[in-house]
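Dear colleagues,

As part of the handover before I leave the project, I'm documenting each prediction I ran so the next person doesn't have to rerun anything. This entry is a single chain, and its sequence is reproduced below.
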Amino acid sequence: MKSNHENQKLKQKIGKDYRYFEIIENGVLVEYKHQGDYSKYEIEFENIDFAEIVVNKKANKMEVFLLVSIIINICFFILFLLDQVNEEKLSSTIINGVAMGSIGAISVWAAKLFKREYIKHIKGNSTLSFSYRKKEQTEVDEFIGLIKIAKKNYFRSTYLKIDKYIPIQQQKQTFLWLYQTKQIDKAEYENMLEELENIRIIKGE
């Protein structure tokens, strides 16, 4: 597996599949390709939270049971074909083809079924999911740190300003939200409230 990130980007590659993340002005651009399925979308910072969940994906018991059942049935079928060959009702070439084809198909299925995946989900209104094997953990955690910084900077540049056309009470609620979500500290919050109060006094409200 190859994984790298530079500046505001992270690309994770597993064979032909990959995950690509890029921090953009108002959120994160995501490209995802898995088993032939492809998707590309943007997640805005407002929809990104940082509740982290690490999941170890392993084989489903029902899928394992189904695989074993199919292997057993194929074995019985091949035994039946062998009897046909012994009785000279069937060519050995046919049974060799059936056996090789069955082994190949089962091998591919088993490889996918038993392949372990470690995924780190960043939960919010939308979810960011990163491949999180041991050698990727540092890079992923650093990239998540970059998202946190970018989100904070975006919120501050977008909402941490006074607009004379927006009602004062509404702006107070916005600054309170910034403080409660730790985008600004207590001193900044109090300074913004003081500025709003001065404006209210000047307006005579």
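The chain has three domains: 2-56+120-155, 61-113, 160-203. The first strand starts at residue 2 and ends at 6.

All the best with the project,
I.
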